[in-house]
Specification:
- With 626 residues, the chain is α+β, with helices and mostly antiparallel strands.
- It is built from 17 helices and 24 strands.
- Helix 12 packs across helix 15 and helix 12 crosses helix 16.
- The radius of gyration is 31 Å and the shape is elongated.
- The structure holds adenosine-5'-diphosphate and magnesium ion.
- Adenosine-5'-diphosphate (ADP) binds next to helix 2 and helix 4.
Length: 626
């Protein structure tokens, strides 16, 4: 009978193999040690790094410490104080729970541990080599734990060889440090690299911690985010869209105090920014969510930054709505009362559909009308040619019509669903103070900007970008309407347009939306389309040019997934239809643009993400004259 060939791996070898998964580089040790100190309740942690962690990674904390027997046991595989049964897995609130880290580290480095519990007179000192205790003794020590990890991978040359340059390994260490530091502003943290103090972080709140890590100038860049529902609590900060970066900026997402990467939820955030930032830039955010640990799938490797939520779809929807709300709240647009936001104040019952917070802005606010005017009086507002409504009783409206080359359609029953139209409730979004504040002047400057004022100071509006924003939201609303009958202006001389094969597939995909907007386009022959009609709003435009530009831009932007097809279409139409620089505007035109801009849900940025408004407050003005 032949001898069985299966044998159990020696403990040390098993630990080394486990170490390969848990510890890839010095930064992984940093992460594990920091997490252990936090789990031990420390509120002061010092981390000393030498030679990018290749020579020394030392952590000193003031946490609970360990007693004599735990000081030795902690290096055993599956030694953990954090769970005792499989049931505990569903309520984990600590960072570690597998009891793998210290065993792994001790199997591939020289480790010294010094630890003392408050109630004990003496502490314990343990020295490990190759996963074995080589010395242990009682020692003098203050409360807490000190661990020194020396000569990482000394016995795994293949691993050591794969370590990168000190600057790269330091970068990884800093990344881990920052992730932990960000989400634990209640802990003071010091980091030294080769005896030089890199960070000295005092206790504070989340915002103060972000500023301490990323610089004072973040103070003005951050916009708070907060929402509480039955299934998730969201809080944190986003960077104002104009500070988005060309490279992936600071994108920090934490779940239950743990840094995670989550492509799906990241999408919820980046999508909220989509029409506010240029196509090739990335938003920055520091978002933390808290969910019941029971709603997280724990069956995922603890050192991996992935995580699975049981209710991802709802969290996605809530997150996106919350970010959008914040984006719309921060503002130099003081005329909007953003506090009218609905909140999740009604607790959710299980199985009830999630209520998404919406931005409620009264697009029907009529700056001309007295509060007593009935909202259903349709004679007050009429659809202007392109972008909204003008006041028909204003007899001096010709310049406005010129602006949009319009013919006012007086019986626009097709537009009764338009959210630009007023509804019965004539609630003003303007606070009372602002309500009384109609700008007293509009002055066009360089045929490019509109100088005006609001209650806070002077404002400069970029005429083209502002109009793009107004049109963009208008088109989006039009596109969102199902089953509406578009108003088509039939062309006297239909235009044909020849397309290449790429454009051909594009237009096929866009056709339903184009028809919905009022483009009457049909296939004429192979790769040739005929344009019979265009939306009645687009009067003095060359339909062929519009369509060609649309296709070109569309093609260019299609691959960038940040915008959905409606947004791309609306954005390009807005770009092509907006008033240009160099176009002279009458006072009424400027005033209408001003009003319509502030009725937008995101008035401060053009659809491409550039500022539409600059504000100079009166207090700033006074300061500058001092
Ligand atoms: P885990 O964190 O998954 O429990 P580790 O191997 O990281 O496993 O740590 C093993 C145990 O050692 C922990 O459960 C904890 O009881 C103890 N321990 C580790 N580091 C510290 C520390 N800094 N202070 C107090 N106890 C610690
Ligand atoms: Mg641990």
């Amino acid at each position: 009978m032949s001898k069985g060939i299966i044998q159990l791996l020696p403990e040390v070898v098993a630990n080394q193999i486990a170490a390969g998964e848990v510890i890839q580089r010095p930064a992984s040790v940093v992460k594990e040690l920091l997490e252990n100190s936090i789990d031990a309740g420390a509120d002061k942690i010092r981390l000393n790094i030498k030679d990018a962690g290749k020579t020394l990674i030392q952590i000193i904390d003031n946490g609970s410490g360990m007693n004599d027997s735990d000081a030795k046991a902690c290096f055993l595989r599956h030694a953990t104080s954090k769970i005792t049964s499989a049931d505990d897995l569903f309520s984990i609130s600590t960072k570690g729970f597998r009891g793998e880290a210290l065993a792994s580290i001790a199997s591939i480095a020289h480790v010294q541990l010094k630890t003392k519990m408050e109630e004990n007179e003496m502490g314990t000192e343990v020295e490990m080599e190759g996963g074995k205790v080589i010395a242990s003794q009682a020692c003098q020590s203050s409360k807490g734990t000190q661990i020194s990890v020396k000569n990482l991978f000394y016995n795994v040359p293949a691993r050591r060889k794969f370590l990168k340059s000190d600057s790269i390994e330091n970068r990884h260490i800093l990344d881990e440090f920052i992730r932990v530091a960000l989400i634990h502003p209640e802990i003071s943290l010091v980091l030294t690299l080769n005896d030089k103090e890199e960070y000295h972080l005092t206790k504070g709140n989340f915002k103060q911690r972000i500023i301490a890590l990323f610089g004072k100038n973040y103070n003005d860049k951050l916009v708070p985010v907060e929402e509480t529902t039955d299934i998730v609590h969201i809080q944190g900060f986003i960077l104002k869209p104009e500070y988005s970066k060309k490279t992936r900026g600071e994108q920090f997402f934490f779940a239950n105090k743990r840094f995670i990467k989550h492509a799906y939820l990241h999408h919820a955030i980046s999508d909220s920014f989509a029409d506010l930032i240029p196509d090739n830039s990335f938003p920055s955010y520091f978002i933390e969510i808290l969910v019941n640990p029971a709603n997280i799938d724990v069956n995922i490797h603890p050192t991996k930054t992935e995580i699975k939520f049981l209710d991802e779809k709802s969290i996605y929807a809530i997150l996106k709505a919350t970010i959008k709300k914040s984006l719309n709240q921060y503002s130099v647009a003081p005329t909007l009362d953003f506090n009218r936001e609905t909140s999740f104040d009604t607790p959710l019952k299980k199985g009830e559909p999630i209520k998404i917070p919406e931005i409620k802005i009264n697009r029907e606010y009529n700056p001309f009308s007295k509060p007593s005017v009935s909202g259903n009086d349709s004679s007050v507002w009429e659809k202007s040619s392109l972008s909204g409504y003008k006041k028909s009783e204003n007899k001096g409206a010709q310049p406005w019509e010129k602006l949009y080359d319009s013919e006012v359609s007086k019986t626009s029953s097709d537009y009764t669903n338009s959210i630009f139209e007023k509804d019965a409730k004539q609630e003003s979004v303007f606070s009372n103070e602002e309500n009384n504040h109609t700008p007293s002047f509009f002055k066009q400057i360089k045929l490019q900007y509109i100088l005006s004022e609001n209650s806070k100071g002077l404002i400069l509006i970029d005429q083209k970008r502002a109009h793009e924003r107004v049109l963009f939201e208008h088109f989006l609303n039009e596109l969102a309407k199902q089953d509406k009958k578009p108003q088509i202006q039939q062309l006297l001389f239909p235009e044909t347009i020849e397309l290449n094969s790429i454009e051909n597939t594009l237009i096929e995909a866009m056709l339903p939306d184009l028809l919905n907007l009022g483009f009457d386009i049909s296939l004429f022959g192979k790769n040739t389309y005929v344009i019979n009609g265009i939306p009645s709003e687009f009067q003095q435009v060359n339909p062929k040019v519009i369509l060609e530009e649309l296709l070109e831009d569309y093609q260019f932007q299609k691959d960038k997934s940040k915008l959905n097809p409606h947004e791309i279409l609306a954005k390009n139409l807005a770009k092509n239809m907006a008033i240009k620089y160099g176009q002279e505007l009458q006072k009424e035109e400027m005033q209408t643009l001003y009003e319509q801009l502030f009725l937008c849900s995101a008035p401060l940025l053009s659809p491409s993400g550039y500022p539409t408004i600059l504000q100079l407050s009166y207090s700033d003005l006074e300061k500058r004259f001092q």
